[in-house]
Structures are given as structure tokens and as C-alpha cells.
From TrEMBL:
Function field: Catalyzes the first and rate limiting step of the catabolism of tryptophan along the kynurenine pathway. Involved in immune regulation.
Family stated for the protein in its record: Belongs to the indoleamine 2,3-dioxygenase family.
Listed EC numbers: 1.13.11.-
Gene: IDO2
Matches recorded under InterPro entries: Indolamine_dOase (IPR000898), Trp/Indoleamine_2_3_dOase-like (IPR037217)
Origin: domain of life: Eukaryota
Organism: Bos indicus (Zebu)
Catalytic reaction(s) noted: L-tryptophan + O2 = N-formyl-L-kynurenine
This protein's UniProt keywords: Dioxygenase, Heme, Immunity, Iron, Metal-binding, Oxidoreductase, Tryptophan catabolism
Protein name: Indoleamine 2,3-dioxygenase 2
């Protein structure tokens, strides 16, 4: 905790690795309860990313020392997650309210552990927390809808679909706060490296050796919005079918979700098909409500694509033109890629287009 609480300063002064090397080998048996395990994982995952990338992408550490690797791997196994920072660490387990009775809004929230990046890093994490919060009514609506299909209750299903549409629109609205709180140049040049992994990353082509765990290097993808359960759940429920390449990547990202999230997606998978139900019902109100959900989901993806263009592609060309010379040289290896390792623009366009292909046309 002492190291994690000083992480930005230790990374910026290049002292983190020396501090970690002196860390005692911690014993996980003293952790009691789920919250402590999650906090341990939050702290160890942040320290791991800082340790590997402290000196930037040109000098990554290729070996994680045993006093960090052993407890991190043990905590990760206990929680059913891979030993690398994932969305559920960076975002879901990494916020607290300033005033516990106050609203869940940016001004009343704070991160628990940070990387370099100051206010932009805080904004990036907390806006994503608000995106997850905006999805809560949508996830509940999805459960309501599945039950409505099972009970053949068209009124309840219609209400659920309307609630889902509003939630998807609220997610887009929440995502819009990125513009207010995150500086694209700082995101690109400072923050992004610490979300990067060691799979499909030319900076660490072989992967990372976890000392005391395995002699061979292990490869894991970096953090990605595709590790959030939200859009996976909506896609499964609405029956969106992605291209093989996109679907393979998205399915691989499920291994980076908490086991309970994976189980939830499996449940939606085996639930009765909403599309089939609506097509066979001949109910035009349901069909319209369904299509409005699909259109809202496509609009969210179009908006996300615009954000990625601003924070990745445009920021990359600005950094290349050296207009951000006061910032560290940005990572070259990930230039056109998301931190999860995908060719990000073509991937996002494909998932958006496949969403639109899901629209139902009224029969005759």
C-alpha cells in the first residue's frame, strides 16, 4: 500500500523498480474476505504495470521479480483473473466517494490508486466508472426482458426494451464527459503505456517472465474497453453477430472479466432469443422498440469511434509532428493499436457496422 500510494511519484522519479526490489515477499494467507483480495489485486496490478513500463516502452522490464510475481499470481488465481491489470481493476475496483452520502458524480468521486497523468488519468478512470454506472439500468432491463419472454409478457418486455434504450443513450452521454476531463495529448503520451500488455505488443514480443511462477514468458493483453461486460451483454441479448476476427478478440477478452461477469454472459447466451421472439410475435411495437435499442447501440459505437480517433489517431499525428515536445515521447509500438492490441479503428468500425446489420425489417 505504501508503494501504491506513491506510485505516480515513484514512476516519474524512476525509483519504483528499486522500491519493489526491496519489498518483502508478502503472504496472501492474511487477506480476509473478498474486498481485501480485490484491494490486494488492485495494488499489485498497478505496481506491476508501473514496474514493467517505468522507463517507457523502449526499456520494458522483461522479468517481474518473485516478490511481486508470486503474490500477484496467487491473488489473481483466487479471483479467477489473469495476472495483468484489467478493466475491473482500473475502473470497477478503483473508485471511492469523497462524501459517502453524496451523489455518484465526478466531483464526489476519487480514484484509489493512480498512474502518472494527473487530472487526466483521474478523469479517464472516473468517466469510465460513470459509463458503468449508466449501464446499470440497462443490465437490469436485460434481466427483466429475459423474464418477460419466459413469462410471455409483451408489456413487460416493451418496458424493458425502452429502459434498455434509455440506458444505452445515457452511456453515450456519460462517455461524452471524456472531452471535459481528459487531455488527448496526456492520454496518448503519458497514460496509455501503463494500460499496455505483453501480448500482440512489439515492445515486449515474447511476453513477461513471472519469476518463481514460470520459466517461460507469459503473454497477456493490455486493458481494453472490450473487457467491460456491458456491451458483450447487450450484443448477446440483441443478437448482434460480429465478424470472425472481431468475435475472436471479444471472446478472448471474456477471460479478462471476473468469473461472475463471464457467468452472466453465459446465462444470456442460453436464454431464449429476443430476435426470434420478436420476429415470431408479429408485435410491431416490440419490433420498433428492439430496433431503437440496436440503433442506440450503433450510435454509441459511432461515438466511441470518434473518441478513439481524437485520443489515439489525432493525438498520434500531433505527437509525431512534435507539437507536444513538453511530454515524453509517446509509445511507437502501439501507434495505431488499442491498448488491448487491436487495430482499433477497423475493429470499431466493424463492430458498429455489424450492429446496424442486426436491425429487423417489418415483414410485409
Amino acid at each position: 500500500m505504501e508503494i501504491a500510494n506513491r506510485l505516480p511519484q515513484l514512476i516519474e522519479s524512476r525509483q519504483l523498480r528499486a522500491q519493489v526490489n526491496e519489498m518483502p515477499l508478502l503472504n496472501c494467507q492474511f487477506l480476509t474476505g473478498y474486498r481485501e483480495w480485490r484491494l490486494a489485486r488492485l495494488v499489485l496490478s498497478f505496481i506491476t504495470m508501473g514496474y514493467v513500463w517505468q522507463d517507457g516502452e523502449t526499456q520494458p522490464k522483461e522479468i517481474l521479480p518473485r516478490n511481486l510475481a508470486l503474490p500477484f499470481v496467487e491473488v489473481s488465481r483466487n479471483l479467477g483473473l489473469p495476472p495483468i491489470l484489467v478493466h475491473s481493476d482500473l475502473v470497477l475496483a478503483n473508485w471511492a466517494t469523497r462524501n459517502p452520502g453524496g451523489p455518484l458524480e465526478i466531483r464526489n468521486l476519487d480514484t484509489i490508486i493512480s498512474f502518472p497523468g494527473g487530472e487526466s488519468l483521474r478523469g479517464f478512470i472516473l468517466v469510465t466508472v460513470l459509463v458503468e454506472k449508466a449501464a446499470v439500468p440497462g443490465i437490469k432491463a436485460l434481466v427483466q426482458a429475459v423474464n418477460a419472454i419466459l413469462q410471455s409478457s409483451p408489456d413487460s418486455l416493451l418496458q424493458a426494451l425502452q429502459r434498455l434504450r434509455v440506458s444505452i443513450q445515457d452511456i453515450t452521454g456519460a462517455l461524452g464527459q471524456m472531452h471535459d476531463y481528459v487531455d488527448p495529448d496526456i492520454f496518448y503520451a503519458v497514460i496509455r503505456i501503463f494500460l499496455s500488455g505483453w501480448k500482440d505488443n512489439p515492445a515486449l514480443p515474447a511476453g513477461l517472465v513471472y519469476e518463481g511462477v514460470s520459466k517461460e514468458p507469459l503473454s497477456y493483453s493490455g486493458g481494453s474497453a472490450a473487457q467491460s461486460t456491458i456491451l458483450h451483454a447487450f450484443d448477446e441479448f440483441l443478437g448482434v453477430r460480429h465478424s470472425k476476427e472481431s468475435a475472436d478478440f471479444l471472446h478472448r477478452m471474456r477471460d479478462y472479466m471476473p468469473p461472475s461477469h463471464r457467468a452472466f454472459l453465459e446465462e444470456i447466451c442460453v436464454a431464449p432469443s429476443l430476435r426470434t421472439h420478436i420476429m415470431s410475435s408479429g408485435n410491431s411495437q416490440l419490433l420498433t422498440a428492439y430496433n431503437q435499442c440496436v440503433e442506440s447501440l450503433a450510435a454509441l459505437r459511432t461515438y466511441h469511434l470518434a473518441l478513439v480517433t481524437k485520443y489515439l489517431i489525432t493525438a498520434a499525428s500531433r505527437a509525431k509532428a512534435q507539437r507536444t515536445s513538453h511530454l515524453p515521447r509517446p509509445p511507437q509500438a502501439l501507434e495505431e493499436r488499442g491498448t488491448g492490441g487491436t487495430a482499433v479503428v477497423s475493429f470499431l468500425k466493424s463492430v458498429r457496422d455489424k450492429t446496424l446489420e442486426t436491425l429487423l425489417h417489418p415483414s410485409g
